[in-house]
Amino acid sequence: MAKFLIVHPNLDIYGGGERVCHHIIKALVAHNQQVELLAFDFNETLYGEIMGEKLPSGITVHTLGKREIVEADPPLSVYKRRQNITRLLKKYKTTAQYDYTFSTQTLSAFETTLFDKADKNIAYVHFPEIPYDYEHSKRNKRMYLWLYKKLLERHIGELDLLFCNSNYTKAMTQKYWKRFGINEPIIAYPPVETPFWSDKPLEKRSNCVVYVARFVPQKRHEILKQLATAFPQLEFISIGLLRDTEQAWFEDFSKTLPANYTLKPNLSEKELIATLQNSTIYVHLMEGEHFGIAPMEALASGCVTFVHNSGGSGEFVPPEFRWESFEDLKMKIAKLVDTPNPYASWNKQREMLQEKISVLRPEKFEEQIWSHTESLMRTDRKISE
Count of CB atoms within 10 A of residue 172's CB? Predict the structure, then answer.
């Protein structure tokens, strides 16, 4: 039995990444490994409500306090924040004992503070955001990010096992980090929880179009508002997490909504599942989504699922249901709803799609995580003998 330190700093925001963390913990516990969790805010009751089950018993949770204590004002806020977090991590590390670190959030420069005390380091990479942002930023932003990127890259070679959420993310990870000597990442698609899976016929559902994403400007809910105006015969629903920091934006966005468009913030998982399984169409409005757990949950729920023709979601969604522009998306929806037998094309592919997305079932994810982790542990034992 080995001791794993799961590092997931922002566990107070619950989404696809947090589900990945949860199932990695379950995979390790199921194979009798000792697991400790390191995070900022952690509310065990809320965690259980969001995940649909409690944190496995026997897990020690180390909290670094509220995230607010490390936030910093400009200038150089990213460096001040890193310094604050690193100070906390060094204090924690003086007494901590662990054999393996397992970073389950997108890797940041401060997490590498923990690497030198472990025998091996593992990471689940949702996307290599820092080098990507650096490459795609203007000169001033690049100058700002340069040192932060270097601080991260200094330790990338210390990662012994990497998992990625899609082929798209794997390609980007290799593009930016291969020169630092990383091993080829393993693709482990994020799990879709069992209650989402449904074979309810589309003909028995409401003529409803759903989008699921946090209520923040970047998630482009305004596109759904435009679609609602274009298709008054359909019902449109935006579902997502709403935090206090976005309340003012949300209230402004809520003004002058079309009569057929409803906003549903902070739904429980039970309500989210019920909505998806009673809807016919799901549209995902983000471009270049690294993977996107929401469209995969929609697929498992049986919705006709449209995604942008970029990022990782297209690895599961057929080409004819991927869109390039707003006008393209509008045309594809019109073509679907205006035909005499609107769901014939989707129904023909449904059995094949259900088989294809079966890799997203939680048990498949946990098996894959453990298989490669155990292989690393066996290699580690042979070296030490």
Answer: 21
